[in-house]
Every structure is written in structure tokens, then in C-alpha cells.
Amino acid sequence: MPNDTSTPAGAPREEPAVEAPSPARPPGRTSSSDPGSAPEADPRAEGYRAVLAVREFRVVFAAHLLSLLGVTVSELALTVLVYDLTGSPLLSALTFALGFLPYVVGGTLFAGVADRFPARRVLVTCDLVCATCVAVMVLPGTPVGALLALRCAVAAVAPVFTGTRTAALTDILGDGDLYVLGRSLLRMVSQSAMLIGFGAGGMLLTVLSPRGAITVTVLTFLCSAVLLRLGTLDRPARTGKDVAGPLLAESLAGAGALLGDRRIRGLLLLFWVPAFFVVAPEALAAPYVEAIGAGPAALGLLMCAMAVGHIGTELYVGTALGPRARSRIVLPAAALGLLPLVLYAFRPGTVLAVAALVLAGAGAAYIIGLDQWFVEAVPEHLRGRAMTLLTAGLMTVQGLGMAGAGLAAEFFPVHQVVAASGVVGTVCTLLLVAEVRRTRVRYRSARQG
Predict the structure, then answer these.
(1) Where does the record place the region Disordered (predicted)?
(2) pTM of structure
């Protein structure tokens, strides 16, 4: 299922209405009195090893890797299939874009599912729904319009799956440091799987038809469903029971409560706003390579550079820094993360452009600490909806950021658009950093009071 790498407006309040989070369970375990308590982590393991020592997390990790690789392959194959059927570059590009835009629909209208029903049931059902949609795509008679509609359906289900899984990590790993590292590990795998998946998809398309390559995704969804059904515990819904009532109203009420809380709203925006601006160089990599007269190899380097910086820095932060140090670097790293894009103002060659993108990817160092702040700020009964909203918003703003960068490049040189993204993004992020710092002081006072 696609990963993060989260809106209807809620009425803002001057003071955050913060509920103190429930006492954190020891990492990797739940109380023995909890129904379906998770297996304990190996007390001798540390860092990412401690996360992988939890058997249930290993199942979630394997299911995530399987479905993510399958989705990445299918995205490439479906884009090629639509182009083969229509000969239209616009429809081919639209097929790829539809992987982002429906997130806001699914994440807003169906977010209540994540808290209303048991997590395992939601995750398995989402996998089966997506497997069914992709199976219909494979049928030879499926028209292009139906292919695009099915692509939208899979993308609309994705934020519910991802939000439910992210909230379930707090049950599997606790809501302390192991949760943060577990989320970090899934994020790094997502970055790596994109690179591997596109490469694998390209190789598959040399030996299989586009529909044949898409068939691989049906199998990965089914395998993910089996792993989650057999390898994870059946925990009750976060609301305590399956509740009746309009799902849409419950989802919108949850979004309103989250966005109406000043602290939570600021943290969400700190996830979303940098992501909106940082996608500009990737969205414009092909025209930039053409503008500087570089070749296809340069395009590959530019497309991979930011992911390399992200993975390397997140691995270092998760391994070498403790929770307090990760918390201290959140605001400085967020404030400086987009500045390397300003180097594009000088129209750099391939080497300097790659360096700028690696540094921009390294700016993601703030996300691990921000994950911890977010899970602490969100009340337990809203956690599933909060993670779903976070995922839907994150994917949506990236899609909008790519579209905005492309539109701006119709009127201005590509290097100026990327540099402007760095400047404007930094200014917006600095404003958010100031807001989050203010709400952090009030949040601490509320918890101590």
C-alpha cells in the first residue's frame, strides 16, 4: 500500500485543547492485561535492532515492503499501458498524478474507519479491496476510463490503510522511542522501495506486457493481506467497539477536532509545508537536465539524490541520536532544510545540483523528532484519524507541489522556479517554526498543569 512518505477547515482556537496522552507503555510491549498484548522486544537489542526484534512489527514490515514494491511497479506499468492504449502524454501523466490527488478524499471522508473498526480488519480489507481493483485493471477489456477510476479508488483507500497501520504501531511498539524508530524504518524502506521498484518495473516491462506487470501487484496485495491476517493480533477498535452512525460525519468531526487544536494543526503543517516545496526539483528534473545540456545519467542522479540524502540522514539520526537530541534538532533542521535549493539560482551543473538535492534530502532529519511530538499531542481516541489525515495531506501537498512547480516553469526558467521554491518555502517554514515553538511552551504548561 502506498506510504505517506496526510482538509476541511476546523474552527481555530487561540488555546489548544490538549488531552494528556495515555501513559506510555514500555517500548515493544503492552500491559499483560491488555487484550491481545504484543510480544516483548528483546531487552538486549537497541535502536532499529530493538524494533525488528518485535515479531509483530516484522510482519507489518514485510507486508509493507511487499505491497509497496508492487504498487511502485504497477504505477509505472499502468502509465505505460494508458499511453499504449491512447497515445496521449497527458493521460499518461494524469495516470501518475492520480496516485496523489485522491488521497485528500480518502483521508478526509473515510478517516473514521481507522478508529471505528479493529485495525487488523481494516488493514486486511484495504488490501483485498486494492487487490480486487488491480485485478480488474488486468482484464483485457477494461477501458481507459475504468483504469483511471480504479487508480483513483486504490489511491483513496491508501491513506486509510497507512493511517490505520501507523496508529497500530503505537499498539505494537508503544508510543515511545520504538514507535518513532519503527515509523522511521518504514519511511526509509518507502524511499528505497521507490528507487528499487521503478528499476524492477522497468526490467519487468522488458519481459512482460504492462498488464502482466500489473498482475504482480495483485499478488503483492494478497500476500500482504495474508501476512497481516495471520501475523498480527486482533485488537479492539480505538473507540472501544464498532459504533453506529454516519461515517462521513465522524470522519469530518475528527478532522475538525484535529485541525481546530492549535498545537496539532501546527505540527501537521510542519509536515506538509516543507513537503509542498521540496518536490519542485524532482518534478522539474527532466527539463532542468535539458536546460543544462546533461544526459540521461544526470537525470537518474537528480531523481535519486534527494532520496539518498533522506535515507542516509534519517538512518544516522535514528541510530546515533537519542530522543532528546532528536527533539532538539526538529525546529532548526526544519527551518534550514529547504535552503540548499537556493543554489539552483546559479544554474549549477550536475555535480552541484546533486549535492544541493542530497542536502535538501538531509533536511528530513527533523521528521523523526516531529513524529514523537505528533503522537504525544494527539489524543488516543483520535490517533487513527490523525495518522490518516497526516498521510492524506502529505501525499496531496506533494502532488499539488509538483503541479505548481510545473505550472510556474511554463512562465519562468526552471532553475529560478526551484530556487524560488527554496526561498518561499524557507520563509513559510520559519513562520511555522515560530508557531510550533509557541504552542510547545503552552502544551508543556497544559501537561504539567
Answers:
(1) 1-43
(2) 0.72
